[in-house]
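name: query_chain
kind: protein
chains: 1
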Amino acid sequence: MVTVVEEKKIWPELREDLGIYPGPRSSDGAPTWTLHDPAAHRYYRLGWLEFECLQYWSLADAQQIAETIEQNTPINAEAAEVEEFVRFLGSHQLAKPRGANASRRLAEIKNASHTGFWRWLLHNYLFMRVPLLRPDAYLKKALPSVNGLFQRKAMLLLSAIACLAGYLVAQQWSSFSHSFLYVLTPEGMLATAAMLSLSKLVHELGHAFAASHFGCRVPSMGIALMMGFPVLWTDVTDAWRLPRRQDRLIIDAAGMLAELALAALATLLWTMLPDGALRSGVYVLASTTWLVTLAINLNPFMRFDGYYLFADYLDVANLQDRSFALARWHLRESLFRFGFLPPEVWPRNRHRLLIAYAYATWIYRLLLFTGIAWAVYHFFFKALGLGLFAVEIAWFVLKPIIKEVAVWRELFAIHPTALRPCLALLLPVIMLAFLFIPWQAHLLVPGLLRTEAEFTLYSPQPAQVKHVLIHEGQSVEAGQTLVELTSPDIDFRIASAERHWAELSHQLASQSLDPALARHNPMDLEALQSTLAELQGLRAAYEQLTLRATFNGRVRDLSDALRPGEWLAKDEPLGAVVSRNSVVVAYAEEADLGRLQPGAKGYFYPDGGDVPVLSVQVQSIDRTGARQLTLAELASRYGGALAVREDEQHRLIPEQGVYRIQLQAENTSYPLPITVRGRLALDTPPESLAGRLVRSAVAILIRESSW
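structure:
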């Protein structure tokens, strides 16, 4: 017979280096305390029950501690709650390790911390902190000099400066607004980078001095590499031990307030300084840097100033982690009705706010990580760009979704009863149907409506208008005379050439009778041929003065100078003859070519309401991609839908592979503008959104890998 002896649980002993400070009041008015772990530089918010547990920790028994708390306080404590707190202290290494189990646990934690180079790089290549300074001692020495900035008088003075600067700028608003063009020059970009660095330094010093003013330590300052771009950062984690929420809010906002103060001073200086490099530099501070810092730092969805302001305003520590846990519970209960209790109990309005914040953050992160994936794909060379794009999408977008689905499967397995479908479950079903059911039977592409042919009338020589045989909008036939011009100069030169030709002809005819003249026969014959060629050229030039239509069409855009008796300069445009038929030129992406065939029909939807919707039919599709865009109207630089870049020869190069499509427009017997930009909706075989995404991914993979 084997007797199993149960090992007695060892009561944990707290570490001596832990610090505890009074915390802010909770939302229900109960007191809180802040526990500081100096080794890990972490802070933990403790409630009344946890604080009382620490008060009676020496009893070394969960049941006795719970009973003592019930006797001496109005708290209803249970031994299970005390044991849960004990486990919390052990899992966060806040107690001294004792026994074999503790040593084994520490070894497991150490082994888990060694993630390997590639995993470390994956987590840190987007954002990596590099500590440079330990400024706490210097901040305390300089603190007496800046303490006055935290007084109400200083705030009133800065407000007055801002109002004065705003008033003076309003008086010079035209000059101030037009100075922005300087920022777009190479010198302006360099000044912007320098002034942005200065403003960021002031921003971080604002956080550091505010934390030091309220008695907090600032252990380090340094540079963070965000996607390779350096940004400054300051460690003000010590602000968590401040009991007053207002003090923490001031530290959170101090960086932005410092930059706004710098912008106000720079604006005032701009109104006083003469033109020059210094005035241009302070203009950058006054116009752009504070807008950039507000746009970035007020974002509550990333862990910048806006996040900590929002968290401290709500007085919810670890806002994202707690709201995410609540939103995951809400999602599972909405879909499957598991019947689990929420991870935390909040008042109704706060409960809804945290769930909405979590969902909004998830959507923002989805867009952000997708954008980062697109950015790294374009910033790096092809192979690395494709790899990083796949890693970004797989690790930061797909992995959280897969983990959540795995949790659902585990919950299904342990749930004691069959789950009843609920109405909210239709949402993912609809999304899957939207993703996989072929429903897209139309392809939307940008296009340009224009005439099939166009011929511009020019004055071939300096001439005078003789007869105008057409009017605006008139239909003409091929070969029809449109305008007759006359040129006295050509008439005179033709008459002179004809007289000269007649003289030479008569002279050659009489040479056979006079032997003395016959010796000049070769020279006179050459002169005769030259005069004849000149005469033919002049007659051809005279013939060009009669302008005729080269094809059947319609007259448009006649010049006001086209009146009998008016003199015209050489190559002066007089009007145009355009074809009665119209075509649409469009560009489709490489991934969409498989859905298009000659003969496919669709509709052209013009921009604006001047032209009605037109029926179109595909005539031809180019087999090779467009190396440059010849239709500037469709380029993004000119308001079009095709993304292009301009090379050194000012050619418009498409950013992605596009193929030219020509379509015949139907029912265009009425006059149309020369060109009309719009969208084409072409009939194609039905396709699912998932199929389109797969085809686009394969097309990009083939193109970028140069297969």
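note: The chain has five domains: 19-113, 122-315, 329-436, 454-575, 581-704.
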